What does this fold into?
Amino acid sequence: MRAQTRTDYIQASVERLKDSQLLIDNQAFAGAIYYSGLAAESAIKAFIVDKDEEIKGHNLAKLAFAANFARRFKPTIREQVNAAISEATPMWRNLFRYSSLEDLDRMGLEFHLRFQVGTRTTRYADLGNDRIEMWSKRLFDLSSLIVQEGNRLWQYKKH
Amino acid sequence: MAVQEALEQAIHAVAPAATINIGNEHGHWSGFVVAPEFHDMTHLARQQAVWKRIRLDLGADAVEVGTLLLYSPEEFDAVEDEE
It folds into this structure.
């Protein structure tokens, strides 16, 4: 089987993000959380492939270090991408592919999850009954930024 | 002054109680910074504050700084959990 290329990872990141949007539109928030994180992971891994290194693990922060991901952007974009990766990392795990809504809600509480709602960083435990929906939408927004900037960088490097 | 030392001083100027865990990978200083001062800040506000100080203090040497991810202690517990 041929190895994944940078193009494969970038294209997959864009497709998984679209899948996540469809899942959010259809109120399937557990699936949306998983696919949003997968989209971000795929975008970051594209830049590790670029460096011809073996890709290990699923922790977004550690992958970002290996890819030296945000270093590649202009300062204002770098701050936004670093912020998105920082915030998204505790919001996503590869094991979420096996998680029900109930399981995700339990983990959100157990991990003391915090993410930005409006202009403030808020504890997951302090949010209301629609907290899984808020989690999925916030992670989608963060992953969108990571995928968009990763894709833009990839297009730039191609030419 | 070495870049690592200058970088740590810049970070401590923004977050005096910060625990800094950085290393040099591929020629750039990258890693985690964990500080209680970040607790009530958004992730973007943290990045903006730290990078403003890095650019001010390090000048041209700022190009040697890579990816810095900034957390409050409570948040960091969940970051390290899964490989």
Chain A has a mean pLDDT of 92.
